[in-house]
Each structure stands twice: as C-alpha cells, then as structure tokens.
Amino acid sequence: MLPEPFLRWFAERGWSPRAHQLDLLTSAQQGNSVLLIAPTGAGKTLAGFLPALTDLAIRPKRRPGEPKRGVHTLYISPLKALAVDIERNLGRPVDEMNLPITMETRTGDTPQHKRTRQKLSPPDILLTTPEQLALLIASPDADRFFNGLRYIVLDELHSLVTSKRGHLLSLGLARLRAYVPDLQAIGLSATVAKPDELRRWLVRQNPAGEMADLITVSGGARPEITILDSEERVPWSGHSARYAIPEVYDAIRRHQTTLLFVNTRSQAELLFQELWRVNDDNLPIALHHGSLDVGQRRKVEKAMADNVLRAVVATSTLDLGIDWGDVDLVVHVGAPKGASRLAQRIGRANHRMDEPSRAILVPANRFEVLECRAALEANYLGAQDTPPLIDGALDVLAQHVLGCACGAPFVADELYAEVTCAAPYAGLDRDSFDRVVDFVATGGYALRSYERYARIRKTKDGKWRVSNPRIAQQYRLNVGTIIEAPMLNVRYTRAKGKVGAGTAAALTLRGGPVLGKIEEYFVETLSVGDMFMFAGKVLRFEGIRENECYVSTGGAGNVLVPSYAGGKFPLSTYLADQVRGMLADPARWKALPEQVADWLRIQQEKSVLPRKEDLLIETFPRGERFYMVAYPFEGRLAHQTLGMLLTRRLERMGARPLGFVATDYSLAVWALGDLGAMFRAKEPSLGELFDEDMLGDDLEAWLADSWLLKRTFRNCAVIAGLIEKRFPGQEKSGRQVTVSADLIYDVLRSHEPDHILLKATRADAASGLLDVRRLAEMLSRIRGRIVHKMLDQISPLAVPVMLEIGKEPVNGEAHDSLLLEAADLIDEAMGSA
Amino acid sequence: MNIAARELTRAGCETIAVAGVRAACDWRGVVHFPELDLLVVSDLHLEKGSSHARRGRLIPPYDTAATLQRLAAVVDDYQPRTIVSLGDSFHDGEGAARLPEPFRDSLMAMMAGRSWFWISGNHDPDAPDDLPGETVEELAVAGLVFRHEPSKGHAEGEVAGHLHPCARIVQRGRSVRRRCFASDGMRLIMPAFGAFTGSLNVLDRAYRGMFREGAPTAYMIGTSRVYPIAGSLLRPG
Predict the structure, then answer these.
(1) Long-range contacts for A202-207 (Cβ within 8 Å, ≥24 apart)?
(2) Domain count, chain B
(3) Among A7, A769, B18, B22, which lies 20 to 30 A Cα-Cα from A687?
(4) Mean pLDDT per 10-residue run, chain A (833 residues)?
C-alpha cells in the first residue's frame, strides 16, 4: 500500500506507520472521503496528507509538451499560521524522501506576483484558507485551475463547520465537486459530540444518506486534571481569579512551561498584570491574544517554540493545533464553558499522546467552582458538547452566488442543485434560493426599480452573468465572513497631547510604534488622561486621530480594562445541565471545596435548591425595590434576551420594572412593584410570565429597534455584499458620505420587513447574539416546573448576580435619558431649570 | 445663551437665536423661523439609494419615500409661507430626473401655494429637472444668509448645511451619538435630513474656526425632542 520511498523513510527512522494512517490511506485509495478524529499529537497531519503524497510519488513524470498540471491537493486551514506551519512540517518528509512534489501556501499575506505565478503554474499541493478558496473559485479560470484536483484536506474541521466560514467553505466544496465530481475530501478533527454530522458534511449530500468513512483514534493517556483547592476564599462573583494568583504563580515555578488559558482578552490582560506583580523570580512570562500586533504575536510564538518562555497567558488564539514546544502544564483560569473546549485546551499540554496531560482549573467565583467540577467529570467520562451545526446562512449564500457568477456564467437550476449538495444548505428551499439570486441581481426589493442597475443578468441562453467587470472587483474586496468590530490602532505617541475634550483641532500627536488594535467603541468612552490596560501595559489615553488611538506610558490611577464584545463563550447546554444536577444532589457536594458546599447548605436552609429540571425563582425586597432572581443556567446571551422580554411584560402588567442584569447562571430583575406579592396573587402567575408566547409578539416588538439586531444586520449586509467592509485606514470623516447599516436597517424594516436580508438577520440573531433557540428550549422545559420562593431577604445563591448590578451596563441601547442628564447639567450650571 | 428666554414653541422644539433672529430647532430635523414664516431643511439627498445602485451598491430604494414622508409631516405641521432646501437636495445631478412619478407628485403637493428655494449644493449644482421653485446660490433674508456650504471664519447670520453635524457625549460610561444642530448663537449649521445621510462630529477639523468658542452648542436630536448640550461636554469621534 505504501510506495517504496515511504517504507524506506519509515524504516530508516525505526518508525512504522500508525494504524490510523494506513486505515486512512486505504479508505482514500478506495476512492472514499474520510473523516479522521484524533487527539493532538496523533500524527494527524501526516495521516491527512499520506494519500496525496503517495499518489504524487508514483505519478508519472510530465512528458515534454504535455500541458501543465493543475493543483492535485488542496489543504484548507482556519488559520494562516497553521498553513505556514504545515508547509514546514510536511516539507521535511518530502525533502527527505526526495519526492517530486511542489508545495506552496496562498494566504492574504502572499504577494501579488506569487499569486499570479501560482495561477499560471500551480503547485501540486496548495495550502490555503477558506477565503482564498472563495477567491480562487471566483476567478474566470477556476475550472482549469482545479481540473486535476484529487484531494481536499480540511484541517481543524470541528472548528470550521460551526461558523459562517464553514458555510462558505461547504459551498466552495460543492463548487469544486462540480468541476471534479470524484473529488475526495479528507477531514481532520478533534473529538466532537456528533461525528456523523461531520461525516455527512464531507460528502455530496445524497438521498441514501451516505457518509464519509470514519477513523477514530482514541484519546491517549487520561489527563490529570485538578481544580485549584485554594487556601483563600473563593469570591462570590467576578472573573479575575485574583485570589488565586500566588498559587498559580507557584504552579508556574514548579513546571517547565505553562500555558494559561482565559476566556476573554480582558481577563488575559488582567491575569498577565497580576502575575508580573508577584513575579519575584523574573520568570519569562508572555501574553498572547488576537488584538496584539502581529509582529509581537510572532515573537511570542517563536519564543514558545524555542522553549525560552516559562509561561504564556493566552485566549482562544492558541486553541488550534499549532505546535508549541514542550508545554507540561495547562492552567485554565475561569470556567471553561464547555467540556469539549476544555479537552482541546488541555490537549495543548504535552504534545505526545502516550503521556498524560496535566491541567489545573482555577474557578474565578463560586458558580465557576460548580462548572469546573462538572467539566472535569465530563472530561473523565469523555463527554463532548461541541455546538450543533446550524443551517447555512443566506447572506453567505448571496456572497457565494455572486462569486460563482464572477467565475463563470451559471444556470440557476444547476447552481441550486449544486448548492443543495453542500451539507448546511441541503434543506434550502428553491424559493429562498431564487430570492437570494434576485437579491444578488437587483437587491431583491419588492419595488423593482433597480433592474437597470443589475449586478448579474440572465441572458438569452438562460445563464446569469456579471453585468460589469467592476462588480467582480467589488466582490474580491469584500470576500469572507469574518466581520470585526471597528478597530483602532493603538499607537505610542512621543509628544503628549494637550487636548481638551472639545478641541480635537489642537491635536499635536506624533506617532511611535503600534501596540495592537482595540475596539473603537471602548476608546470612544475614554477621556484624555484615562488609564487603561492593553498589551500587558498600563497606558494613558492621549487622543484619537482618524483610525489611531494615541497613548503614552501610564502611571498610577484608576485603570480601566477594555471589555471586548464576542470574547465570551456561553455556557454549554451540557455543562449547564450538569451544574443543575450537581446543585440538586447534596451527595455530590462532597467533591466540592468545603466553602462552596457550605454555601449550598446555607442556601438550602434559607431558601431552597431547585430539582434538576425545575426553575427556581426567588423574590425579595431590598432597599426601596423588589427583586426577582431566576436560575435558568442557560448562558448570558439567552438570559439577556429573557431579561429584555420579561421587563417588557412586567412593564405592561404594571410592575414598573427598572432594570435587569444577567450572568451565565442567573438573571435578576428589579422593580418598584412588589413582584413576589404579584406572583403569589397570580397577577400574573409565573407560568403566565414565563409562557413561551413571549417569543412571539414581544420578541418581534423588542427586536424592532434592538441594537443587537442592528449589529447582526450590519454583519449580514457586509457578508451579503450590500455594503462594503470598512477597511483600516479609511478616515472617519468619510462618515457623512457612507450609508450606515443602521439607517438602511431602519428604512428596510419599515418599508419591506420581509426582505431576504432581514430574514437572514433574524435567523442569525436566533442562534447568535440573542440565543433565542436556547431560550425557547428552556421555556418549554420549565413549563409547569417553576418553583417560587418568597423571601424576606437576599439568598446565598442570589448574591453573585446581585453583585453584578451596577458593574455590567444593563444593555447597549443608547438612551435619551443620558442626553437628558447631560442637558440638565447645563440648566444646573446656569442656575435655572 | 439666555436660558430663561428659551421657550418650547412646539413639543420637542428648542428655540434659539441666530444673530438675533428667533429659530426653532425641531427634533424632526428642520428649523422654523417664526418671524419670517420660513422653514429650512438641509441635505435631503433624495435618490441616494438609486445613486448608489448605479454603482453596484444595491441599497434599498426606499430612502426618497421615507425622506419625503417625514418632510411632508413637518410641512403640514408648520404650513410655512417659504421653504428653503439648503442644498444637496438630490444626491446627484440626475437625481431629480430619476425621481419616480409618485414622489414628484408628493413633492409638488408640498410646494404648492408657497415659495420654495433650492439652494444649489455640491451634489446638485444645477436646478432640478422639471420641478418648480427657484434655484439660487444663496439667499439673504432679514440679516440671515442661507447657503449650502458654511463659509470659513465667523460668518454672522449664516445658516448652512453640507457638513451633516452630529455630536457625541459620554454619560455613565456610555457613548451617545446623535445628529444635531450646531450653533454658537451667531451662525447655525443644520443636520442632514435625508434618510440615508451619515454625519460628521462637530469637533472634526472640518469645522475648525467656525465657532466663536471653539466648540458650538450641539442641539442633539433625541427620539422626541432636542437636547441642548454645551460644547464643553462634547467628545470627538
């Protein structure tokens, strides 16, 4: 099965191919697509490429005069860095065996001349990203470029398929199969909850339900996971885990190299600062997150690979399978939010399958202790909770349809058949497809006034063509599905700005080095002189100019930590379920630290602990207000949506609600009306209040002007090609000439609420920022199972969420009341009202 | 500004003085001069949607309808003798020619029985096709000058548009940005009225040197009233 050079290569090293590597090769040689599920360190990469390498090794040499060959194998990875990494790792065996194989990367960083050359003279193996694949498909010679394609290798498939990037990739795969019907897909994945979903994803959708072959490599040695049993008091709330810093530092000292994972960039900044505060031994400890300058990140990665660092504080940017030297300890600060995520992060330690990974979980608060415990047990059981796959997004489809037209004219019937071969779009109805094509052509508006401006047109032969070469140009600039919040460069300034808030004109800032990028909306709340933490430093804000945020070295004072949108993963359904189970079963509290078990015991005395399937609702007065705390454990996003809907209802019912705050575990609502008494008198009953019908009209009405929906719409509009991406370097003074997505949303919603893009937006919001799907599941689960406990005072279980009040902004709506306050300041200052 | 003299003529209006002439800044985005019985609206940018569509950006074709609907409501409310459209009434030179018939009709209905001035703007330098009204570069009335682009320096009595002013404040750690009227009592810069018009912060350098004290007072437009915010409270960006 293995050609001679391979047998010799293995033999010379005293190795033998692993079983799964040979199994995969057999599957591939039988002409099948195949999914390989294996933990890190199992030799996944070599396995994935063996079919390609062996096939290329025995391929006859090209005879003179024979036309140039196209790409033989395409490798797709979610990270540019991973593609580069693979080129290095795969290059070695190819060189050592002296195989006649060319291999190149093509990413956003590849210079134009190299791309042009690659088009004319393609390498045998092309290593690239989903976005680059979309671009290749949209070029006029795509069919020729790909006609010799035999394999497509999809790395880190588990992380790709759950996003819109995965949708775009699935459509690209379907298109490739239109060029090359026999194309075989090889998926490489970490362990997932439902392998069959991925097996189906890899093949052309078919009525028989055929799937790719499956090869599973079971996990290596069982990881040694412990929860930090701190001498210190575990706090009620918060996410900093400051209490545990000395113990974490001690663990770093006792190990060779430690990877410290956190969930958000702000936590990363904080933890890094705190560690250096106690770093008496001056251990080399570094920081790595996605907002740092690329050069800085590469430096950290290199130092890591060279084993000169003792610890790195990192966010999910280090989740994926890049090889990082000899990590012998993983510390997870804060709860992991999902069992599979924890398993993948722990897998970063000790990149050898046969040795156990070591990991310490550091819960930041008491609920997180429960969550860590649940995650730990899940990991020992091998339980998986990767998120479910969702239907393909229509905005992504719109982008793809335009891309296809840029490549070659298409017939709608054929393209529909092709698109429904892609797993996420298997259930797409013809009407939606036609509406998407109509959207791409003329915007899809009921008022058909844009026919003469159509981007694509159906000609007499029944084929849709791009009407103008400029359209293809626009498409290329906007390809992709990753929409980042507007960011500003953080740049050191030499001269201090003498800038008052009102006089941007006096800005005399001169630029120094760039530290990274920061969200515009955070910077907008800063005043000159404010201190904030970024890139592991305390910085003083000096001013904004165009797309740059100028800073100088900060000093003492009240230091802010930027909070970042989107960095927070919601608690997985599986872990939520486990935590509820643990609360309900005192026998399991023995596994918890004494102080946490005590907390639960006191809760039992003072209030009650809900059974696993119940929803506990406590009401109590405090100060001048009445509080209601609910414990659904469905994650912050679903709780936020629930909070919005409940306050609307309570308002209507005359309870005069004032606000709410949501955590991953619970939700607190406060009002002027006596909520407890209202519920007891069944005016309304809690059953009515939590009725599923809130997801009907109330949701619609709230969505109407929700900033969350506007943000979702903006992303859809950019992906679908309705508005352009904002590129760095574009001046903000361009604002008055661009059309903002918010304005488009308002106009579209009032004039054509059924527009296809609004449909896409609502679908997105349901699974994304609003998590309506999860809320719906919860509401149906708790029907008839609500337990109301009326209390005289706050219960122990309610303390964590009550401590969040005032810390978290209630929500992002821009209130007129803030304007009123500011306007009143004038009246106050001027002595009249 | 004399706060005590501030009065609310209509709900949500803020009456100020521009070079001594009373002007009611209406939250719907227009200014009414009661003594002159004159209504000013700026930067309608009609047919902006179709203007973008011509270049392959197929944004919704409903902006003209939305803009005219809002305009009709204020015109109906004030019934002014004179209306000044302060330039950039159409998003491009052919905008008026592209105007669909029903919109032309509703515009004509608004114009009937009153004087209507089209001030020419940079987007629409010429008179609009097939529409009544008088097209002028600028208009001088009772010590006020109406023109599209604000002139440099302190221009007493000037009412202009073009810049699409907005203002931003930070209150309780939260940022609020709204379109606004910008005035220092001497001159007035109008917000853009069109449904698809963006905006530019009054602290941007484009406004440099235009106001007496650096930053103007921003009359920020809320959901049902205008909020006067002192220049010292405004934030750039």
Answers:
(1) A202/A33, A202/A34, A202/A35, A202/A154, A202/A157, A203/A33, A204/A174, A204/A177, A204/A421, A205/A420, A205/A421, A205/A422, A205/A423, A205/A426
(2) 1
(3) A769
(4) 89 90 95 90 84 92 82 91 80 91 89 90 94 94 92 93 94 97 95 92 94 88 84 83 93 92 86 92 90 81 85 75 72 88 76 73 92 87 81 96 96 97 96 97 92 94 93 87 77 62 48 83 78 86 81 79 60 90 92 91 92 94 92 90 88 86 90 93 93 83 72 89 68 53 89 93 82 89 94 92 69 61 64 40
Q: Is B126 exposed, middle or buried (0-12, 13-18, 19+ CB in 10 A)?
A: exposed
DSSP secondary structure of A138-166:
TSTTHHHHHTT--EEEETTHHHHTTSHHH
Q: Is the peptide bond between A621 and the residue preceding it cis, with omega within 30 degrees of 0? A: no
Instruction: For A328-379, give the DSSP string.
Output: -EEEEES--SSHHHHHHHHTTSS--TTS--EEEEE-SSHHHHHHHHHHHHHH
Extract the tokens encoding A159. Answer: 């992380």
CATH number, position B69: 3.60.21
Superfamily assignment of A224-381 in CATH? P-loop containing nucleotide triphosphate hydrolases (3.40.50.300)
- Inter-residue contact A716 to A760 (CB < 8 Å): yes
Q: How many CB pairs under 8 A join A and B?
A: 173
Looking at the complex, report in whole angstroms how far the Cα of residue B56 sits from the nearest Cα belonging to chain A.
6
Query: How many Cα atoms are found within 13 Å in the side-chain-facing hemisphere of A281?
Result: 11
What is the spatial order of strands in the sheet that A559-560 belongs to?
A511-519, A487-493, A548-553, A537-545, A531-534, A559-560
Q: Are B130 and B124 in contact (CB under 8 A)?
A: no
A-chain residues within 8 Å CB-CB of B196?
Answer: 739, 743-744, 747
Nearest residue of B to residue A443 by CA position? B58
Sheet holding A786-790, edge to edge: A657-662, A667-671, A625-630, A615-622, A786-790
Contact between chains at A503 and B66 (C-beta distance less than 8 A): no
Long-range contacts of A496-499 (CB under 8 A, 24+ apart): A496/A542, A496/A552, A497/A528, A497/A542, A497/A543, A497/A550, A499/A528, A499/A542, A499/A543
Q: Outline where DSSP puts E strands in A85-183.
A: 103-106, 125-128, 151-154
Q: Are A278 and A247 in contact (CB under 8 A)?
A: no
The pLDDT, as a whole number, for residue A166 is 95
Give dist(CA A686, CA A669) in Å, integer: 14
**Of A395, A429, A433, the residue nearest A411 (C-alpha):** A433
**How far apart are the C-alpha atoms of A382 and B176, rounded to whole Å?**
48
Helix axis angle for A394-407 and A412-419, nearest 10°, is 130
The rounded distance, in Å, linking the Cα atoms of A827 and B3 is 8
The 3-state DSSP class for residue A293 equals: coil
CA distances from A301 to A322, B33, B106 (A): 10, 66, 65
Residue in A101, A98, A94 with CA at minimum distance from that of residue A73 = A101
Q: What separation in angstroms does the CA of A417 have from each of A177, A178, A421, A422?
A: 12, 10, 7, 9
Predicted local distance difference test score (pLDDT) of residue A24 = 96
C-alpha A351: how far from chain center? 24
Cβ-based contacts of A521 with chain B (< 8 Å):
175
Helix axes A245-253, A265-277, angle to 10 degrees: 70
Q: What domain range includes position B196?
A: 3-233
Looking at this predicted complex, what is its ipTM? 0.88
- Strands A125-128 and A73-76, by their bridges, are parallel
CA distance B168 to A504: 13
> A832 vs B4: CB contact, 8 Å cut-off?
yes
CB atoms within 10 A of CB A129: 24
Give Cα A198 distance to the centre of its chain: 19
Q: State the nearest Cα–Cα gap between A368 and chain B, in angstroms.
A: 28
d(CA A744, CA A779): 33
